[in-house]
Amino acid sequence: MPDYPTIESCIGNTPLVRLQRLPGSSSNTLLAKLEGNNPAGSVKDRPALSMIAEAERRGDIRPGDTLVEATSGNTGIALAMAAAIRGYHMVLIMPESASTERKLAMRAYGAELVEVSAEEGMEGARDLAEAMEREGRGRQLNQFSNPDNPLAHYRGTGPELWQQTDGEITHLVSSMGTTGTIMGCSAYLKTQNPAVQLIGLQPTEGASIPGIRRWPEAYLPKIFEPARVDRVIDISQEESEEAMRRLAAEEGILCGVSAGGAVAAALRLSAEVENATIVAIICDRGDRYLSTGVFGAGG
């Protein structure tokens, strides 16, 4: 019998494609890492499986246990999928302002959804997850402080980028939410070439971009090490959404708002350098945002 793959084995090894129209005339090569091609549709599939598998390997959890996690969306969907694969009951806590598609996807994978108000936001969701764990209502994986989050990118995303660019990558642009992607990729890429520049994104004041956060000091992810990021770019909601729409209409890449922000920042960066190979992480697919109206319809 052939050794057929499982859905778990399909996580990672996502395509890296060249942008053809948005860069215009440039000596630089701009590339997009299509993380929406993961089974549950985002870069978060990688740390979701890593956190569950590593906790299971250590004996911290076992199939049948209840897991709780605060999420703004993509990690929740990924964890719901990983929990379904491995046999856990998943309770996800998120702001009520999350898109309808995200909520429906979590429930489709069998997760239980607990919502906090938009005003409480992710900080409120994180506080509730902590309280539930203290009360014995589930085991928290805690993507914000769990080293198995960046480990997934140190083992997977970083090596893929190095191999797919034949070691020619000069800059990586990544949104910063939990910061797992940029932390893990930095840890790997810097071992291959210390000159590779890691560019992190945070939102401008007042912007509301799913997946990118400007955390209050008390909620800054514990996995975040500022020294691993060479530069931080503030990105506006308008610039992110405009780049997101252009990616769909001009490049055929339907992605989310944070991915639009990464490409907008990559284009900014491209205007400053020459003969560079710049990679932007396309965190997720755009179909989970259609009802929000960001593409000009729905809402």
From TrEMBL:
Tryptophan synthase beta chain-like PALP domain residues: 8-284
Designated name of the protein: Cysteine synthase
Sequence similarity: Belongs to the cysteine synthase/cystathionine beta-synthase family.
EC numbers on record: 2.5.1.47
Keywords: Amino-acid biosynthesis, Cysteine biosynthesis, Pyridoxal phosphate, Transferase
GO molecular function, one term: cysteine synthase activity
Cofactor requirements of the protein: pyridoxal 5'-phosphate
Domain of life: Bacteria
Positions carrying N6-(pyridoxal phosphate)lysine: 44
Enzyme class: transferase
Pathway info: Amino-acid biosynthesis; L-cysteine biosynthesis; L-cysteine from L-serine: step 2/2
Binding site for pyridoxal 5'-phosphate: 74, 177-181, 258
Gene3D superfamilies xref list: 3.40.50.1100
Record field: catalytic activity: O-acetyl-L-serine + hydrogen sulfide = L-cysteine + acetate
CDD domains: CBS_like
GO biological process: cysteine biosynthetic process from serine
Database matches in PROSITE patterns: CYS_SYNTHASE
